[in-house]
Batch of 3 targets.
Target 1
Amino acid sequence: MDANIPDHSLNIHTVSAQIEQNPAFGPAQIRELTGTFVQKSIEVYSLTQYWHLHIGTHGEPARIDVVDGLSKMTLDVIGLAGFDYNFNSLSPDGKENELNEAFNTIFGSGTNGASLLKFCRLLFSPLVAVNKARKIMRRIGMHLVRQKKDDILMNPGLNKHSGLGQRDLLTLLIKGNMDPNIPESQRLSDEVILARKSTFLVAGHETTSNAVAWALYALSIEHSMQTKLREECLTLSTDDPSMDELTKLPYLEAVVRETLRLHPPLNNTSREATNDDIIPLSKPYIDVRGNVHDHVKIDKGTMIQIPILAVNRSKVIWGEDALEFRPERWDNVPEAAQKVPGTWGNMMTFLGGPRACIGYRFSLVEMKALIFTLIRAFEFELAVPQEDVVRQNAAVQRPILRNAMDKGSQLPMLVRPYQKT
Ligand code: HEM
């Protein structure tokens, strides 16, 4: 079927096309960025340090909302890896830079309030504070785009802000856009580049932080799995593993897969048929008149829901234990799952086809680096009864407490430093 996503102000098809031509998300680029993810999670103002500050000096467990720290962390990572910009969200003195403050004003009192939906609404909000924040984001964003262009023109080999060596996404996008082979009429304006940049910020930040939050949730319920994963991660003697080293940890891989199957950050999406079409069925059905059908007819303009969560959790596909968190299932993927047309991992989490997630490799490495670092440093236990944690669907699936819905997304845990016995 020839389908496409409906037009909206944040659609980023052109940027995807640019990235396909100039892939910032290929394995080689992601391999080079692994250092940023790992470094960010262990360096001075990092998440481990940030949580250690809450825990105090005596090593007792502290009650910590892990969503808050993870959200700040992934914002810092996408800022650095995506745009060569440091949001400094994890700064221990709580001082935010101007852009981070503006981002928080737009998305609520913490970055964990961000969502595509909220973002779209607030883009047009008449509130004075939001309007001011929007102007700040625009001014700084535009400055970054222009500064980046100047840097590229003046010094093609250098990236002075992060030392990433011009591997950040914005640089690749601008470089691709400056390619003399691209006709003038097809070049993106600075305004459009700025809009794409904002989309990446939102698409790449909350999805990953919530996925890691759900992984910690699952591991805090299944302690034996947490221990098994920690033991595997501790087999590496380095705090700073390469992407290849992370890829070779089979249980980490299985935990990430199982998290993304059972807790996909986006639970569904939709497409609109751009032409009349016919979808063949793997199993024919019989209608009320007794007629057998082996296809479904789709009219142009029909909206089609893609039920990501339902496919990922289908008992027909995954078996009777489909609703259980069981990383071991990845040792033996059921035949039915092998036919799921997802772009990665026999699941629909990143969708499939030409409009699938283009950041999935980025996200997988980031998730692994984060979980690797955190599970080696800390032990996690849910600070509330398991049944109090429910899923809130606000563009992204977030954990929220049944009896504190008004407080927004949170996942309180008792976090204690891991001490080798
Ligand atoms: C666990 C993390 C992630 C999940 C589950 C996820 C999932 C998805 C899904 C389901 C879509 C398709 C949405 C639709 O068309 O309705 C999508 C699109 C997209 N994602 Fe991700 N994503 C994740 C992380 C990331 C990251 C880290 C980035 C960027 C660094 C990113 C960038 C994008 C972009 C740019 C698109 C739009 C692609 C297009 O329309 O051509 N995503 N993502």
Note: The chain has a mean pLDDT of 81.
Target 2
Amino acid sequence: MLELIELYEECEHSLQRARSGPRERVSGSRAIGISLREDVVTARADILGVLASWAGTVAEARNVTGPGRRDVRELVRFLADNLDWLLGPATAGDFTSEIIEVSAAARRAAHPDPVLRTALGVCPAPDCHSTLYSEPAGSRTTGHHRIRCDAGHDWPPRQWLLLARAGARLPLTSHAGAVA
Ligand SMILES: [Zn+2]
């Protein structure tokens, strides 16, 4: 769930890159111009909406005070504090599927360049049927890749052999050293 903060900020950076003209803060501004990509704006709003909605649910059900502000970090911190309850039988299914959904949408919005991504098959994580991708990590010239799926499972290099055994089509021929 902490990844949501990262994604939220990636969306914000993506908006800042897209904007021409003088810099202004994105948050709190409604007059943000027509150059903004709608999917990014929507993804950010959806992250906040889902987090705030669950914070409200928790606050009401547990009779505690939720975050006073609609701030992504405060909301995530509050939800993390109540994660045991959220992952209880009454809410776990809805909560996790909504978090996964907004994460995936934000990731697609923040990283719209599909050319750099290579589909590797289906993510082997339990109950995950999302597409697994390799994509450049860090500087595009270093040749390093990261592997993750649309739902947000991040597979570090030490697990790539596991992925290969699970049937993923890993592009290992040119990066075989990374597996060792
Ligand atoms: Zn996955």
Note: The chain has six helices and four strands.
Target 3
Amino acid sequence: MVPYAKRRDSMNYIIDCMHKIMESLTNKDLISFGGGAPAREAYPIGLIGDLTQSIFGDEEKAIQALAYGATIGLPSLRKAVQDHLLVPNGIAANLDEIMITAGGIQGIFLVCKLYLDPGDVVLVESPTFIHAKLLFDSFEATCQSCAMDEDGLNIEDLESKIKKYHPKLIYTMPTFHNPTGISMSEEKRKRMAELAETYDVMILEDDPYSEIRYSGEKLKPIKAHTKSKNVIYANSLSKIFSPGARLGYLVADAAIMQELTEMKLAIDTCTNGLTQMICAEFFSGGHYPSHLRGLCDIYRSRRDVMQKGIDDHFPKGTKRTSPDGGYYIWVELPQGLDGRELLPAANEVVKITYGSGSDFFVEENHDGSQFLRFSFAGIEEAVIENAMAQLGSFFKSKL
Ligand SMILES: Cc1ncc(COP(=O)(O)O)c(C=O)c1O
């Protein structure tokens, strides 16, 4: 048998973790709080139907939607991203600094492809986004983790790890971090931008949840706090439009963007023209503000029900985060309860699944099994309420 590339082996563990999450999303027998899927009610189905029809009613548009397009992305969608998502968040980027990617994850992939050689170090938050870790592994990079406080990355730890490991990249999710839901303070965002300049390291700022805010003050991305070329901003349209459309975007200095565009050319030529066009018309037609308000209303009330359910039913000594937005609540079980060990029984007995905290840490010796990640976005309130009561009793019975 022809051997697979050596890097395949280094990906085994994370691939297993990802499979568990993806399977839980499609397993109809389980109530899944495991993956980050949007609510069914969050898809603007009728509107997308109308926009698609109107595109195919116009021959020029239809041809553009079906033909090969520019690697950097459809001009009208790049303009929509600039007007509706970047300018309102304080990011001043020219159109040649904005690329449309095939989902947020492709943006991270392209940055890895441009910067990472085998053995390079990537600094990540502890815990971090499992899919990004899978990508770093696939480029044979070494992940080193930095401690997180209640207001995001611990800057002293970050600086000491920069000095120790000389990383190429720092991967961070400053707003509504996945998996914890924590947001980084403005002060820390500014400090991070300064550190990236001082030590000449790239920050990869991943920001798919910041638009979905239910409470608290809006926070500017790190990219908005600096003119430095050392910050690349990656985002996804999956959570605010549709994950199936596979759309995301990158913002980087024009010369770096040129290189990132070559990387994308090498792998897929261009992003799906039809979904780009539908999405561009969704924004330019003025549909986004009310759609976003609708999303926030759905998710705010699901978050509230889940928080109350955890507080009312989980064993004494359980701790949790209180996110102002995003999809996730990060729960720490009291001593004596191991979330990873109990997951198969929770699937079997109460037919509920959650993210096992240990999957989100990169340290070999970190077990993290007292932590659980719950995504509240995709499940209706009544189901969440009932599930939290059942899971709470289940955990109590195991104490
Ligand atoms: C932190 C983070 N970054 C990136 C992504 C990728 O998004 P997409 O589905 O658009 O590839 C996700 C999706 O869950 C995410 O949570």
Note: Residues 36, 103-105, 129, 173, 178, 206, 208, 236, 238, 243, 248 surround pyridoxal-5'-phosphate (CB under 6 Å).
